[in-house]
Specification:
This protein has 2 helices and 8 strands; from the N terminus they run ααββββββββ. The protein has 137 residues and is α+β, with helices and mostly antiparallel strands.
């Protein structure tokens, strides 16, 4: 009788583990789908940015490329050139971290809406907004 109870318990535990593995597999597939959005952000973007409290418009370009499964690139404006150090996607929003040649970090938070990259930036003590369009080709 004890062997029968152990066998039933073992079958139950194996079934539970298989169910959890199936759920985990589904989550992994879901995560993979989110990674397919990488192709949405990779490319050359250009447009305008403004600094909070200042009406002057700056021309900005962001060039994002795949290097293996990592996104690298550059952010350029007439005032500064930044190297992209990290790109991540969570909760429907892209987060891009950059650094200038003299080590000042910039943060960009954005979404893609109607084929435009729209978001906010911070660099040093400055903050602002931007809207960029993807270059064709």
């Amino acid at each position: 009788m004890i062997n029968l109870i152990r066998a039933i318990s073992l079958v139950f535990i194996l079934g539970l583990l298989a169910s959890v593995a199936g759920i985990q597999g589904y989550s992994f597939q879901k995560s993979k789908a989110a990674k397919s959005d990488i192709k949405d952000i990779v490319g050359k973007w250009g447009g305008e940015a403004t600094e909070d409290g200042n009406s002057e418009v700056m021309q900005v370009t962001i060039d994002l490329r795949l290097d293996g499964n990592r996104i690298v690139g550059d952010v350029r404006s007439p005032e500064v050139e930044l190297k992209v150090t990290n790109v991540s996607f969570a909760d429907g929003k892209w987060a891009i971290t950059c650094v200038s040649a003299d080590g000042v970090e910039a943060k960009i938070g954005c979404t893609i809406k109607s084929a435009k990259l729209i978001g906010e930036w911070s660099f040093g003590g400055n903050t602002g907004k931007f809207q960029l369009s993807k270059s064709q080709g």
